Amino acid sequence: MSIVIEETRQILRDYRLCDYCLGRMFASKLRLVSHKNLGEKIRKIVKQSKPKSCYLCKNLMTELDVFLKKILDISKEYEFSTFLIGAILQPSILDRDDIIRSKFKLRGIAGIKSDVTREMGKQFGKKTRTKVDYQNPDIVFTIDFKKDQCDIKPKALILQGRYIKETRGIPQKQESCNRCEGKGCFVCDFHGISEFNSVEGHIAKFLFEKFGAQQAKITWIGSEDESSLVLGNGRPFFVKMINPHKRKTQLPKKIKLDNISILNLRIVSKVPTDPIKFKTDVLLEIATEKDLAPGVLDVLHSLKDMPISISENLPWKNQKRIHDIKIKKMDTRSFTVLVTMDGGIPLKRLVTGTNVEPNISMLLENQCKCITFDFHKIVSGN
User: A single GO BP annotation from the record (predicted)?
Assistant: First the structure.
């Protein structure tokens, strides 16, 4: 301690420092946390009064209550249990801090920015009964002391669920706002979409109201036509909610919306980065150009377990499989096919034959057209 006292006298001969800045210079050396209490104790020993203005921080450390009130005010609309505070300081403060530490060879001590955020975090945590999290906080505050303003950024919330669509005529995806092209503007209330007449729109509208989110970015596991139905256990999807205000909302197992139902919607840690493999049961209604000869549909059973090659003008071919197939003739020029297949097979092209081999038109030697296709079951996994 005697060495610290002597170093303190040397510093205070040239610079008038507040208790926070004075204590920070020696806290790590004495293995103490409270910089202010240490500064007060050292000041009493060296018998120096408190300065009216701190040379280093210009009384910033003693006026943090003003900024604490600001982040308390802007945080009232948000739910969170962990947080992190960042700071942008005037370059002159950082320069003075570097000058003192370099001049007196004070190595290994925390910089003033760390002291500001540590002190703010300690006070904010006590007021809100929340904890600092340096790795994955629910919310991040950035205090710009240069511009005298605070910014708040909640962590995105990820949800996973399934949807059922029992009404035809509803598109899966929602068109972006014409004004901002999905970025968010005043016209679309910063949602990126201005209407809610699709599966995406219905899901997004529900989440905006339930979680107070600004935008909803959906990752689809497969897709369907506007005229298709999605039945059974529903189609899986993930949704990333941007700027959510709520994080702990109770969700029922089944959510009934206007034209769709959402099943087992729950919060998860992340959206998978690798492509998700899935199998699906699809019922296709198919029309033919020529009459169907007796027994000709039996040839379609050869599609079972046969590699389906899909060309997309690439140097390689994507191969999928049909695991089961059931065929029912409707009349002389139409029939239905119920297939269990790998996800990712373009159904209409499987029928017509465009860049898909083998295909139904080729096997029947009869040009075919897919009238409708409905999903009866979708199972994630290999």
Answer: tRNA pseudouridine synthesis
Average pLDDT over residues 93-105: 91
Query: What is the residue whose two structure tokens read 């004004």?
Result: 179
Q: How many Å apart are CA 239 and CA 215, to the nearest integer?
A: 10
Known catalytic residue at 305: no
Q: Which of 133, 225, 324, 342 is catalytic?
A: 225
For residue 316, what pLDDT is reported? Answer: 59
Q: Are 306 and 322 in contact (CB under 8 A)?
A: yes
Residues 6+ apart with CB under 8 A from 126: none
At residue 250, the 3 state secondary structure works out as coil
For 230, phi and psi rounded to 5 degrees?
-125, 110
Residue owning tokens 């942008």: 88
Domain 278-380 has CATH 3.30.70.3190: yes
- Give the whole-angstrom CA distance, residue 185 versus residue 176: 11
State the architecture of 157-268 in CATH terms: 2-Layer Sandwich (3.30)
Residues of the chain with CATH 3.30.70.2510: 157-268
Distance of CA 75 to the CA centre of its chain: 20
